[in-house]
Amino acid sequence: MAFEIVTAVIASSTALTVAVVSYWFTKKREREAELRKERLEHYKELVSSLSDILEGDSNFQGQKRFALACNNLNLIAPVPVIKALQSFQDEIKSSNPSRTLERHDELLSLLLVEMRGDLNISPGGGSELMFRLWSPGKQQ
How much is the pTM? Predict the structure, then answer.
């Protein structure tokens, strides 16, 4: 009879442990999915705000929107994205006397590749993939 009790205790303990572990992993996956969704929204806002600071189209409101998008990423983005963002910011800041379009595109591409990697989106082209921003052009 003692053997049957021990077997029942072990079986119920195992079932309880499996249930707890399953619940924990499910909640962890849900939290990760929610965080990934939130990062995607912040990344979309950053990319959208880039259009407001294009050379020739830049204005104070656009610069404020870009700054807010960058600052929000400091809270939610992983370290590689933040480092790529900071490098991009250093290149585009007005106090940088050696800004170049090539370096801009290179650092923008690095930033976007890091963001895509964070979202588990394969860049496809690897390190050769270069992103550029498009402007509607000046109104006459």
Answer: 0.75
